[in-house]
Amino acid sequence: MALRRASEHIRLGRRDVRRRRPHRSGGRSIRRSADRGGVPIGQGRRHQGPRAAVRHIGTALDIDAPADRVWGLLAEFHHWTDWGVSIRRVESEALQVAPGATGRVQTVAGPWLPFRICDVVPGQFWIWDVAGIGATGHHVTPLAGGRCRVEFTAPWIAAPYLAVLRLSLRRLKRLAEAR
Question: What domains sit in the chain, N to C, each tagged with a CATH number?
Answer without folding.
Answer: 45-178 (3.30.530.20)
